[in-house]
Amino acid sequence: PSVDLSACVDVEMEEELRRSPGSMRLWWYYIQATTKRMEMRQNADLKDAFMEFLCQLHERALRELPRCYKIWHNYLKLRESWVADLCVTDPACDEVEGCYARAVCMLGKMPRIWEEYIEHLTRRLKITATRHVIYEALRSLPITQHYRVWALAMKMIRELNVPVRTGGELFRSYLMLEPAHAETYVAYLEGEEQWDEAARLLMKLVNDPDFVSMEGKSNHQLWLELCDMVTTHGPSIKSVDVDAVVRSAIGKFSDQTGRLWNSLADYYVQLGNFGKARDVYEEALESISTV
Length: 291
Hints:
- With 291 residues, the chain is mainly alpha-helical.
- The chain is 71% helix and 0% strand.
- One of its GO terms (biological process) is generation of catalytic spliceosome for first transesterification step.
- Pfam families: HAT_Syf1_CNRKL1_N, HAT_Syf1_M.
């Protein structure tokens, strides 16, 4: 049954708006006054009536002022409050999502609207939709605002069970803007047991003379991490020549020679190539100069 909204109408304000439909000041006053009247109501049905009336009031205001950030933002907050206690699969949440989609069409250069849109979709666990909106936001916003979008993208990857393919795609796009965060991607790949991709990226970092670790790691430490990774997870490594990597490290770091020879031999043991492992041990005994 339809809700009786007559108790919500302010006749005087309606007359004012008929005379000045494009006045943002009048619309805002009417919205705020109606909100206060709603908050004073104790009856649940009457509160629902005021909520519906407020939504209609915002829609009317936005027809007159389609690019008014203040009204759009207030409307979205109102819609969010209406569905705050509902299940994320409730159809009412779809209506909120539709409002966000309309808002960003009108206010595509406003980062806060995009942020709240992404957060709404993330709360609803809509990973694919969130990814699409993230890319839409990046296309719409100036590059100086992209960090705000990427912060939410990284949060989504950390907190939701994002498929590795989606997470990797987002991370690779992120690194185009923030290449210094490559170690974060390596850590993500390790957590997802994507050893081949992690090793490939880490090898790129150790060979980049301009790379500076945000975690304060030296090139020496990164090399040893790479060697540990490729020898420990040898069967998973396809894109990196493990033998060449470890031998290169042996030539660079004399203080780790014994450890690295052992790791290389263990790598061949993992592959079931015991003859090659024996050859590595023999070569190590002939060439090692440190204990």
